[in-house]
Amino acid sequence: MRDDPSVVALVVRARSGDKSAWDEIVERYAPLVWSICHRHRLASADVDDVGQSVWLRLVEQLTALREPAALPGWIATTASRECVRVLRNTQRQGRLETSIDPESAGENVIVEQELLADERHTALRRAFVQLPDRCRQLLSLLVSDPPAPYTEISAKLHMPIGSIGPNRARCLDRLRTSPALAALIDVEQAGGVA
Amino acid sequence: MTGQWWTDDDQLAAALGAALRPVPERFVDAGRAAFAWRDIDAELAALTYDSAADRLVGAGTRAGSAPSRELTFAAGDVTIDVEITNEAVLGQVVPPEPGEVRVTPATGTATAAEIDEVGCFVIRPVPAGTFRLDCRTGSGRRVVTGWLRA
Predict the structure, then answer these.
(1) 8 Å CB contact between B103 and B127
(2) Which residues contact A93 (CB under 8 A, 6 or more apart)?
(3) Per the confidence metrics, is the pTM higher than 0.90?
(4) Which residues of B touch A (CB under 8 A)?
C-alpha cells in the first residue's frame, strides 16, 4: 500500500545509515523495477543498467525525498524514465525504429499499472507465507512456470491426483481470506479498481 | 463482486504465480551494494546538459552515423565538459587546473587518468556500464559527477 508506514520507517532508518533497512528497501522494490524493465522489453544488460541507476539515484536522493511514503511512486517513475533513456540510446544508435516519449500517457499508465500490480504481489507474498506448509508446497508447484503436472505433484506431495483440484481450491480460498490479502481486497473494492 | 482478479481461482493463481516469480539475485545484490555510495565526501556535479536528451526522438539517426555525445556537469563554479566518442571519453575541467580524474564504475575498481594544465583529460577506452567521474585538482578540490552511461 502506498502509505505503508513500514516503508516510511525503512526510509528513515536508511537515511540514518542503517544498511539493513536499505537492503530491505531494495529487496522489497527490486521486483517492481524488474517488472518495469520487462514491460519495456529491455535486453538483459540494459535491465541491470536501469536497476543500478535507480538504486544509485535513490541513495543520493534518500535525504532529499520529501515524502518517504511516496517512495514506491518515486521508484516506479525513476525506473520508467531510465528505461526510456536506455531505449532512446538504443534508438540513437539506430537499433530501434519506434519512438519513445518519457512524458507520454503510455509511460504514466505503465507506472500506475505496475504500482498496482506491485501492491497486489506484495500482499500475495505476505499472504502466501502465512499459509500452512502443505498449501505453500501445493501452490508453488501449481503456479510454477511451467506448472508441474498433476502426476509429479501427486508423487512429490503424496497426494492422490483426485484431491489436487479440491486442495487447490481450498488453499486459494485460504489465501484469499488471509488478513494480508483481505485488507488489499477491501481497499480495491472501496476504491472501485477494476 | 464478480469478475475481480481475486474471486476467480485461475486469476488468483496466475497473480500468485507472478508474485512468486523470483528476481535474479545479482539484480538485487547490485541494489544492496549501491548503499556504499552514501555520503561521499565530495561536491556533486549535476548534469546540466546532455546532447542525447536534446536530440529529437525519431530524428532519423542511423547506425554508423552516430555522432559523439556531449554532456556538462556543474558544481558551483566548476564545470566538467565531457564528450563521449566511440573510442574515448574526452573531458575538460573549467576553470582549468591540473589533477587527476578517476573513472569509478558502479561495481568494480576505479581507473585513473591525468588532468593536464588546461584541465583536459582522456579516458580510453570508453568505460562499459554505469560510471562517474571523480575529479581531484591540485588545490585539493574534489568534484564527482552524477552517474552516466556511454
Answers:
(1) yes
(2) B61, B63, B66
(3) no
(4) 1, 4-6, 9, 12-21, 23, 26-28, 30-32, 34-35, 37-39, 44, 52-53, 55, 57-58, 61-66, 106-107, 129-130, 147, 149
Query: Residues B9-45: pLDDT tens digits?
Result: 999 999 999 999 989 999 999 899 889 878 677 787 8
Assigned C-alpha cell, B24: 535474479
Closest CA in chain B for residue A126: B19
Per-residue HEC secondary structure of chain A comes to: CCCCHHHHHHHHHHHCCCHHHHHHHHHHHHHHHHHHHHHCCCCHHHHHHHHHHHHHHHHHHCCCCCCHHHHHHHHHHHHHHHHHHHHHHHHHCCCCCCCCCCCCHHHHHHHHHHHHHHHHHHHHHHHHHCCCHHHHHHHHHHHCCCCCCHHHHHHHHCCCHHHHHHHHHHHHHHHHHCHHHHHHHHHHHHHCCC
Mean of pLDDT over chain A: 88
